[in-house]
Design a protein that fits this description.
By secondary structure, this protein is mainly alpha-helical. The protein is built from 11 helices and 2 strands. It has 2 domains: 4-74, no CATH class; 81-282, Rhomboid-like fold (Up-down Bundle). Residues 119-249 form the Peptidase S54 rhomboid domain.
């Protein structure tokens, strides 16, 4: 009898230097442990696995079954408060990547008015970077609570307009009052959400005094020595939040939608223009 250990046919067809006595259950070729994929019975080689997957995908298309991408898209469409979920997910992902990369994303996205002419995107991207675990936890908790409530009231695109416009106003006031300083965090936009929610609650005839107290207390914390908090961004966000909230409150009627869009665009332009003016006055 021939000794199997010395039979040249007992080597992996993809790695001729590796002996193996295991065969693919579909094609019968010899495969080493690295090339084995467990199947219902035995193992399969890489080529047979690829053929099976291609055949499975073809059968799904032929039967009209939705693709994995389609299923994922449908599940996302069923989510409530999509904009809030996406913002939180992106912010957390960037923070985690920033920790792994040693601060690469902070250096790329944080705001400093000195860089405004060449890197104007920082006035918005500052919303996605945070300095530490407690910083991002507080901001994302506040965004999760108030963001979902506001998105339910306003809809996704109005909520996104509110979030980014108030973020711009936060960067704008930092440009005027703290030129040349590095700023990170979504706090400006978060305070903008507070202010807009207050305006909308008042416009609906509801008591919003407690929310005003919350805004005041959180704002005062930013002025405490040693906190290293950009109160300028908070105040700027509040200004933007009051303006955008006022626009929403006065253009609730669907027939006023063109006016609403125009006023939101104008508010954004004002925030950007004031940021440019702040740079010209303090640095330029």
């Amino acid at each position: 009898m021939t000794d199997q250990a010395y039979n040249p046919n007992n080597t992996c067809y993809r790695h001729p230097d590796r002996q193996s006595f295991v065969l693919c259950q579909r094609c019968g070729r010899t495969i080493c442990p690295e090339c084995q994929t467990p199947a219902a019975v035995g193992v399969h080689c890489p080529e047979c696995v690829r053929e099976q997957r291609a055949q499975f995908a073809a059968n799904r298309r032929a039967s009209g079954a939705p693709s994995g991408f389609t299923v994922a898209r449908r599940r996302f469409a069923m989510l409530d408060q999509k904009a809030t979920v996406v913002i939180v997910a992106i912010t957390v992902a960037i923070w985690l990547l920033d920790q792994v990369s040693g601060g690469f994303f902070t250096s790329l996205l944080a705001y400093n008015s000195l860089l405004l002419p060449l890197q104007p995107w920082r006035a918005v991207t500052v919303l996605f970077v945070h300095s530490g675990i407690f910083h991002i936890l507080f901001n994302m908790w506040a965004l999760w609570i108030f963001g979902r409530m506001l998105e339910n009231m306003l809809g996704a695109w109005r909520f996104l307009a509110l979030y980014f416009i108030t973020g711009i106003f936060g960067s704008m006031l930092v440009t005027f009052l703290a030129p040349g300083t590095w700023v990170v965090g979504a706090s400006g936009a978060i305070f903008g959400l507070f202010a807009a929610f207050f305006v909308l609650q008042r416009s609906l005839g509801q008591n919003a005094v407690q929310l005003l107290v919350i805004i005041g207390l959180n704002l005062v914390i930013g002025f405490l020595p040693g906190t290293n908090i950009s109160w300028q961004a908070h105040v700027g966000g509040i200004i933007g939040g009051f303006l955008v909230g006022f626009v929403f409150a006065k253009t609730r009627n669907i027939r006023k939608r063109p006016l609403q869009i125009g006023l939101l665009a104008a508010t954004a332009v004002v925030g950007i223009a004031l940021t440019a003016v702040g740079y010209a006055v303090t640095i330029g």
